Amino acid sequence: MIAETNPVIRIKNVSKSFKTVRAVNNISIDIHEGQFVALLGPNGAGKTTLVEMIEGIQKPDDGEIWIEEKHWKNHAEELHRIIGLSLQETRYIDKLNVNETLKLFAGFYELGQERVDEIIRLVGLEDKKNPMWLIFPADNGKGWPWALRCLTIRKS
Question: How far apart are CA 98 and CA 147, in angstroms?
Fold first, then answer.
């Protein structure tokens, strides 16, 4: 059972339309620390639109979204630094090497080359940072997707 605490993510009466299509219709949900949530539905049901609104990529037409009790309207810069993103479309990454890919994702969080180098060292990819990532096994127990996730580790 989830403790009675403030939700990590609060979505209240959120709606979003595109021309004549209502993609998200008056959704409300509280997500507490430790909860896992799955958005299920057919194509066009509004799953991606809802996630993009939570991420701050799109703005709701109606309703409010808070993350850690912060609203995108007044705290966008701070929320961009703390939220982790996994891009839906990543076909362009096959044109980048490991170092370039990590620099791209580090840029989303205003992290520099120093942090990229730290992550490359942490996952043992020093000898693979310049070759294209597709030419070495991505799942070697240390894989580069894990390195991408590490970029969002906040230091206290």
Answer: 9
